[in-house]
């Protein structure tokens, strides 16, 4: 008599075609010992961005921002979290425009400088020698030396406590032309782009895989 249980007709899951690489296999039986710390924001690595902004007619400014993330694909949106005390916060609140510039190791010094000195005291473009890049879609400049510049319009400013979460729509992407190959691919591996983790700046290091490689069939 056929089974009345629909689950009984379900085919069993196909056998795994791709064995986990040796590095992912469990080798030790001993549990991994963990410490429980108080809550904190240890999302590492983070990008470190230079967020530039300007009130038209006034000195342009930029600050270092590690709390920066992708928020949506279509329309392309990102977030930056900025303390209300920053000059840049005041500027973005007024203009509703900013540029997220991703710096390379070549300008790591200037990146840190932008994160410890306020535009209330110095003209950071003058002090670092970085070049303002006229915006294609926004009235504030980007930073020419940064391999990637994302021009943004601030859609929402959400006060969260210590920081304001600024949700921006990306209006234009600028990339350094020398980093784009003949096929139009951005050679990110040659960009020298920086990451930030637990108080330190890093470059990206060795590539260990690519999107989907864990399930791709070997030829
Ligand atoms: C690596 C690094 C990351 C930082 N990330 C943030 C951040 O995500 N949000 C923020 O409000 N400040 C951040 N800061 C601090 C500001 O960049 C810093 O206070 C800056 O001087 C503010 O400049 P401004 O007053 O000209 O806007 C960071 C600093 C450093 C060095």
Short description:
This protein is an alpha+beta fold and 219 residues long. It is 12% helix and 30% strand. The chain has a single domain (46-199), classed as Pnp Oxidase, Chain A.
How would you describe what is shown here?
The protein is α+β, with helices and mostly antiparallel strands and 219 residues long. It has a single domain (46-199), classed as Pnp Oxidase, Chain A. Helices cover 12% and strands 30% of the residues. It contains four helices and twelve strands. It has helices at residues 6-9, 87-95, 108-116, 124-128, and strands spanning 46-47, 49-53, 61-65, 68-72, 77-82, 97-102, 132-133, 142-143, 148-159, 164-175, 194-197, 200-203. The strands form three sheets. Strands 3-2-6-9-10-5-4 form a seven-stranded antiparallel β-sheet. A hairpin with a 4-residue loop joins strand 9 (148-159) and strand 10. The chain is globular, with a radius of gyration of 23 Å. It starts with 5 loop residues before the first helix and ends in a 16-residue tail after the last strand. The model is unreliable at 1-16 (pLDDT under 50). It binds flavin mononucleotide. Flavin mononucleotide binds at residues 48, 61, 63-67, 81-83, 86-88, 112, 115-120, 163, 196.
């Amino acid at each position: 008599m056929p089974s009345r249980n629909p689950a009984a007709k379900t085919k069993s899951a196909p056998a795994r075609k791709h064995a986990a690489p040796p590095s992912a296999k469990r080798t030790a039986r001993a549990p991994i010992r963990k410490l429980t710390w108080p809550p904190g924001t240890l999302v590492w690595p983070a990008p470190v961005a230079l967020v530039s902004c300007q009130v038209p007619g006034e000195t342009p400014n930029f600050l270092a921002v590690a709390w920066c993330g992708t928020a949506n694909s279509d329309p392309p949106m990102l977030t930056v979290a900025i303390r209300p005390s920053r000059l840049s916060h005041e500027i973005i609140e007024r203009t509703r425009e900013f540029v997220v510039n991703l710096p390379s190791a070549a300008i790591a010094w200037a990146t840190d400088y932008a994160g410890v000195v306020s535009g209330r005291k110095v003209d950071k473009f003058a002090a670092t020698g970085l070049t303002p890049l006229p915006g294609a879609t926004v009235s504030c400049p980007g930073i020419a030396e940064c391999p990637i510049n994302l021009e943004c319009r601030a859609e929402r400013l959400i006060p969260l406590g210590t920081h304001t979460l600024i949700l921006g729509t990306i209006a234009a992407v600028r990339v350094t032309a020398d980093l784009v190959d003949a096929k139009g691919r951005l050679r990110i591996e040659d960009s020298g782009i920086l990451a930030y983790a637990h108080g330190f700046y890093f470059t990206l290091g060795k590539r260990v895989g690519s999107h989907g490689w864990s399930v791709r069939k070997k030829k």
